[in-house]
Specification:
- This protein is of the alpha+beta class.
- It has a single domain, classed as Alpha-Beta Plaits, CATH 3.30.70.100.
- Helices cover 33% and strands 28% of the residues.
- The protein has a three-stranded antiparallel sheet with strand order 1-3-2. A two-stranded antiparallel ribbon has the order 4-5.
- A hairpin with a 5-residue loop joins strand 4 and strand 5.
- Helix 2 crosses helix 3.
- The longest helix is centred in the last third of the chain and has 26 residues.
- The N and C termini lie far apart (50 Å).
Length: 127
């Protein structure tokens, strides 16, 4: 039995993209959220009639995770989804790297969870 309704991407004409972001403890969560959200505002194909959202998910040992969510126009081509998701990850990484450079701290790193999903660990903590 299904717990959640199924969405027919072809019928709706849009598709949701979720990007997991992990921010180390000690950093300003509101600032990290604003930087990540601004980074994906201009992703090609983003549905500008829907807001970019952030939902906090979990505490880690030394971090807090949130999911950045936005929608794209989708025409049944998986390549549209993959391209938009990849562009979003790169934009977030570049935005966090710029923030690190402005604050004169180490850059963040990309990693993956046990399921193989990519995540960004924010910018590094000061040495």
């Amino acid at each position: 039995m299904f717990q959640n309704p199924l969405e027919n991407f072809g019928a709706s004409g849009s598709r949701r993209i979720d990007i997991p972001v992990i921010v180390p403890n000690g950093l300003d969560l509101d600032r990290a959220e604003r930087i990540a959200m601004a980074a994906v505002e201009t992703v090609q194909g983003r549905d500008t009639s829907r807001a970019v959202d952030a939902f906090y998910d979990a505490f880690g040992g030394d971090s807090i995770a949130f999911t950045l969510r936005f929608w794209i126009a989708f025409h049944n081509r998986e390549s549209e989804f993959l391209a938009a998701r990849g562009e979003a990850v790169k934009r977030i990484k570049h935005a966090f790297d710029r923030e690190a450079a402005n604050r004169n701290i180490g850059a963040g790193t990309l990693g993956s969870d046990p399921c193989g999903r990519a995540f960004f660990t924010g910018w590094g903590l000061p040495p």
